[in-house]
Amino acid sequence: MFSFRSRRRSFGAPDIAIDLGTANIIVAERGAGTIFNQPSICCFETGVSTNLVAAGSEARAMIGRVSGPFRIARPLRGGVLSDMAAARELIRFATRRAGGAWRVRRARALVGVPNDATQAERRALTTAVHDAGLGHVQLLPEPLMAAIGAGLDVDAPRGRMVIDCGAGTTEVVVISLGAICLSSTARIGGDTLDEALLEHLVRRHRFQIGRPGAEQLKLELARLGAADEARDRAVTIKGLSLAAGLPETLSIAADELLHVCEKHLQAIVGIVIAALEHTPPELSRDILDDGILLTGGGAMTGLLSRRITEATGLEARIAAAPLDCVAHGLAQAL
Ligand SMILES: Nc1ncnc2c1ncn2[C@@H]1O[C@H](COP(=O)(O)OP(=O)(O)OP(=O)(O)O)[C@@H](O)[C@H]1O
């Protein structure tokens, strides 16, 4: 069982907090608050040596538009580190503006990590943070940090269920007395929904769009899906017609694409139900009274909270700033 308070005592005051997510990286510095919040993306020029050309928002604008020696890289896949060089360079880039006195003695860093990350995945993340120029690293579980960042009193002797819906992972945890009592993680999230929409368009309409286009489509569907009357509307998508081999604008009923989204949401609901089945009775009673808290970017679609409530009968509440909960929790730990 992870206990936040016991781990903190042996670490001393940290200087910097890093929420390195599959989609976004947020860095907070003690005394200065958030100093960086941008997409987790790098663009490298590969040649004799590999150089970072751009990172964050600038690199995101390059997706699908680079060729030759340029390579777009994302440090994480499915919530865990998959590209060491990209992680190191992105963390270095994101922390370069930090100006604390710790620069002289190398920062102590708090870094969020999925609760089910393996020892090898934890070691890789720690190495990437060290290689980026930071000193002592402490890894903290993202769903617990999300709960703290959302304002839950995690130290109370009360069962709290939190679902952190990221781009690469969905984590369902039950927290009591400052510790995670039960945890279930699936490597699904906003990214897998983007991919499902891409595949649907190719299979059903022979129409190709890029990853940023798929994410934009998902965000539009999230808006439309929240209002039942909007389901009849059509969405227009710009991309490449594979049949004609030409750029085209495709118009599709929102309802058809919302079916793809619903499949994804049902997979998340399935994880929540499985976690509830394994929750001890006293904690279940607390969750019955307090409901479930949703954090992470994927929680922002009102559809997910609605489907969870329909399936479980429990109130599902979306945190005030879902995208920032983990970073806020880590910043509080600073
Ligand atoms: N309004 C919205 N509706 C649905 N999804 C959204 C919305 N806004 C953002 N997202 C999605 O949320 C995801 C990013 O969330 P978040 O920043 O919490 O993930 P992350 O921490 O980078 O990922 P992970 O924790 O899995 O490594 C992206 O897939 C993004 O498209």
Automatic annotation (TrEMBL):
Q: Which GO terms describe its cellular component?
A: cytoplasm
Give one GO molecular function term: ATP binding
What InterPro entries would the database entry show?
ATPase_NBD, MreB, MreB_MamK-like
Q: Name one Pfam family in it.
A: MreB_Mbl
Task: Give the highest taxon in the source lineage.
Answer: Bacteria
Protein transport among keywords: no
Gene Ontology biological process terms, A to Z: cell morphogenesis; regulation of cell shape
Keyword Nucleotide-binding set for record: yes
The family line of this record is: Belongs to the FtsA/MreB family.
| Function as written in the Swiss-Prot or TrEMBL entry | Forms membrane-associated dynamic filaments that are essential for cell shape determination. Acts by regulating cell wall synthesis and cell elongation, and thus cell shape. A feedback loop between cell geometry and MreB localization may maintain elongated cell shape by targeting cell wall growth to regions of negative cell wall curvature.
The subunit structure is: Forms polymers.
Protein name stated in the entry: Cell shape-determining protein MreB
Q: Which organism is it from?
A: Sphingomonas horti
